[in-house]
Amino acid sequence: xxxxxxxxxxxxxxxxxxxxxxxxxxxxxxxxxxxxxxxxxxxxxxxxxxxxxxxxxxxxxxxxxxxxxxxxxxxxxxxxxxxxxxxxxxxxxxxxxxxxxxxxxxxxxxx
Length: 111
Description:
The chain is an all-alpha fold. It has 5 helices and no strands. It has a single domain, classed as YqcC-like (de novo design (two linked rop proteins)), CATH 1.20.1440.40. It holds the Pfam family DUF446. This is YqcC family protein.
């Protein structure tokens, strides 16, 4: 098992908690078509927060549960910065961006 797994699992829980705290957690799953997008971050079918909830978090959970290799790199924070800059969101996204930055740092940390 990769020694980063426990820290990454904790970070994923913090990301989920922040999505919920901001009211960005959906109770209704998007359509199968929306979830099957092949575009990076499903930008053509999902909002960024939906992608985090319905694609990113479940995939990371599977990686951890099945002891699969972690990705070699992550640029999730950069995507978040771009999305929130386009929306001109002030303040509400800061904590989420920090949590995503910490996730990115864990991914590139030495094993």
